[in-house]
Every structure is written in C-alpha cells, then in structure tokens.
Amino acid sequence: MNTREEVLDFVHHGAERFLPHLSIDCAIFGYHDHDLKTLLIRHHGQENWSLPGGYIGRHETLTEAAHRILAEKTQLTGLFLQQFYTFGDSATRMNRIKTEQTHNTTYSKVGVTLSPDHWLSERTLSIGYYALVDYLQVVVTPEFLVDDYCWLNVADIPRELVYDHNEIIQKALLTLRAHIFQQPIGYNLLPDKFTLPEIHSLYETILCKQIDRRNFRKKLLTLGLIRQLDEQRKIGPHRSPFLYEFDLDNYSRALEDGSILSF
Amino acid sequence: MNTREEVLDFVHHGAERFLPHLSIDCAIFGYHDHDLKTLLIRHHGQENWSLPGGYIGRHETLTEAAHRILAEKTQLTGLFLQQFYTFGDSATRMNRIKTEQTHNTTYSKVGVTLSPDHWLSERTLSIGYYALVDYLQVVVTPEFLVDDYCWLNVADIPRELVYDHNEIIQKALLTLRAHIFQQPIGYNLLPDKFTLPEIHSLYETILCKQIDRRNFRKKLLTLGLIRQLDEQRKIGPHRSPFLYEFDLDNYSRALEDGSILSF
DNA sequence: CCAAAAGTGTTCCCACTACACCCATGT
DNA sequence: ACATGGGTGTAGTGGGAACACTTTTGG
Known about the structure:
homodimer; 2 domains; Arc Repressor Mutant, subunit A; Nucleoside Triphosphate Pyrophosphohydrolase; DNA-binding
C-alpha cells in the first residue's frame, strides 16, 4: 500500500479481500558482521515501534500470505520463513485496553476515522512468523502509512513496542535459538560459499555465547553439514580463509537420524 | 451444545459470540498402561472421524478458549494444554475442495441447511493444541451433534480424518515427542506419586522405543527431575516398587540451564 | 618485521551405553 | 516353590570440552 488511494481502498474494501480477526506479524532477523538485528517500523503518528505485518487474503494460503507480506517489506522472495506461535491472549489484543486511538492516529493520515465496529478495529489474533535475511540485501521501502523504519540489534529493542509485539519478538528469538540446532539456518543467512569464521560468528551471535573455533569446525565437518572447498578468500592483510559450502543432503539426513547440534 | 435448542442458537447467533474464520482443534492424548491414545469424535452423518474442536469466544482469550473447549469434551480442568501450530494451508481448509456437503449433513440433524455464505461455511483457520490426560479419568459426554467417539491408539488412527486433521495430529505427535525432553510432561499424565516402572513405560510409549530401565532411572535422578520417596506401593503378588515424585523446582532449573533429556 | 586473523591436534573426562543377577511378594 | 515384576552396579567407550601455538598476509 504505497499510495493514499490504495490505503483508502484497503480501509473500505479490505474486509472483502482479507480475513478479519487475523493478522500475521513477522520478526525479520537480519544478520551481519556479528550483529543480529530486527526490522521494526513505525506507523504514522505512532510513538512506538511495531513488527511488520499484514492480513491474510481470502484466497491465499496462510504460507502464501506470510511470504507475500515478507516480500512486500523486504522485496525479497524465497526466504526462510517459519511460523512459531499464534497470539491471542494479551490484554491489548483483547481490545480490553483501548488502542483504537493510536490506530486512528495512523489512519488519520488518509482522513479516515475508524468506527469501533470497523473491521480494522476489531479484535485480531496474530500469527507469528520469523524470517532470516541478510539485511544488507534488503531494500526497505516503507509503505504509505509507515513513517519510519529501523534495524535494531535484538539487545536494543525498546521495551515498548505496540500491542504485544515485545512478547512476539521474544518468542521468535527463543524459537530461533532452538531451531538453530535443527535447521540449516546458516544456509539462509550466509552466501553460498562462506568462510569458517563467518559461520562461526553467526552461531555465536545468534546464541549469544562463545564457541570454541576448533570444536565448532570439527563438529560441523564430522556431521557432514558443511564441506570444505579448495578455494580461499582474500581478506586483505591477513591469512586467507578457506571457503565452505553447506551439504544440504547430509543436513537433512542428519536431521532425520535425530542427530542434533549442540554447543 | 447438548440440546437441539443450543445448536440452533449456535448456528444462528454463534457469529455474535464467536470469532469467525478461526477455530481450535485439540489433539487430546490419553495415556494408560502402555498405550497412547487420542480422543476422536464423529459428527452426525459424517463418515470420518474428527479431532474435537471449537470456536473462540469474542470475549475470552485464546488460552481460555482452548481450556474451555477441552473442558467441554473431557469435563476436566487445569490440564496440560499446549499450542503447537496454526493450520491454514490445506486445500480442504481453503474451501477449494467442497466440504459444505458433509458439514451440512451434520447440521441437517437440527433441520438447518447452511448457505455458502453462512459463517460456519466460510474458510476457517485452525489453531492446534495438544493436551495430556489420563483417559481413565475422562468422562466423555458427546455433544448433541456428535454421534460417536472413541479413544484410538495413535498407531491406529485412520488415514482419513476430516479436513486436514491427519496433518494436525501428526504435527501434535511430533511436538509432543520433542517436548517430552523439555517439559515435565509426565507430571501431567501421572499421579503425584508414581513408580519408576510407570514413568518408564510412559516414556517408552510416547517415544515408541525401548529405554533401559537402569539408565533411565539414573538420568532422571542425576538431573534431579524426580525424587525417590520412602514409601512403596503394594501391587499384588510382586515386589513393592518405590514411589517417586517430581521435583518441579529442579525441573525448571534444569531447563533454564539448558540441560536436556535424551534417550 | 609486525599486526591481525586463520589454521590446526591432543588430552581429559564425563556421560551414555550395554549388560544380568538378585530380591520381594502373593498364591 | 514358583512366577512375576522390581530393584540395582559396573565396565567400556565415544563425544564434547578445554586448551595454545604456528602460519599467512599486507602494509
């Protein structure tokens, strides 16, 4: 929704195209150079940051909706995207705490006031997804109602996101840290060929702890999750690191066998 | 909904009390004596079995709704109940495959034909929960539209449940097996005091594999998850087994430390 | 030659595995 | 006495953790 007209059409006819009472919120994690960041946006007239989100089209599957929403925010397709929980408990989400006011501030940009029985004012449950991207590849193009966006280190996320978005992002992080042992998460955050220090630092960043380099390499190689290549990368005035690539076949086989990483 | 009147009221006025487009489905796992069973129901006029489910009241939280639905089916409260996934992809769930017919067969019991735009005919996403109960304690009281119910061993679940319920139950099982290593699942399926053979058999049943008795005991005691008591239980013409109880404090501490069971 | 980063091997120990015999109880 | 089920200990091993020096490279 990049123009006033699109927004107005959404407000007035969105209920015909989208399912009411349900939304999708995405915790988009971007990794780069020892930092794990999340994409936050701020809607027009709102003080607090939000997770990017959207609604589910009446004729698209849930998975399709999540990918579409992610693509609208990042312009990237085919990303790693994973559902992790559905939120329907918090007081803000129950409309027990009045949030129409802030909501209305946003839509006042297009000269609309939402009545309490407008579909956008109704109680909405949210299905949480998390995505992994290389945030240097992402070109964020804020939509019409979005005043601002930022990539924040997960440690620096403010305590006051809108609604229950703090809860959502905390659960996303926990899920990500649990999944890193069971999914080829690095595959989605690293280039096809990467160096050992790169993947090592990725794991250290996501898990917030130090991992012994030698043991790390040994384990990944022993399990056959990565393959060492003959090439090296030039990195300036230092020794050239070798390149590696993922062995996805082995990865999936290892997962089926129940082999599990741990550090 | 135990009378014709209640059902009629639900059909005609349910949309005022419940959120449309959303339901909850519960995989209710009952354990007893080496068997892991699931509660299935068959709605009036339907050939295939379903998971028990229900809708979310407009003024109750998601968690409250799940507990209420579970209590309606089992008459038990305070059970272990865990959300695990939200389903919105399958063709049946997209209304791409016509299921109104079967749906209508059910409601024909109260003389109602649902139009395609009736709220019960619309596309509905389902939030999956799984629960753990001792099925000997459960008194199933089928509702008005339920013709039949059964406890089936999870290995014997027919391949043709309604909608995507096979998918839901498979995911529930996978989640249960993953959670057994990280949650005091036995706590919800065993009496406060239990014998070692009891908890041992529970784990073997859920994980579908044999576990060495001695190693099993050693691990649970070493991690401090259970405490041996001074009491024994009389079990007829055999040696009296000792009783144990869970040490929930230690359990949560172990989880925070990241200690994890494995067998 | 120096600074910065990457490469690599060994030891130790704990935790998991495998395994079998004795004991208690009621009939 | 016996049938049934419960209780218990040890030895061996494999995988994880800890640990430091050498090599490469460009400036």
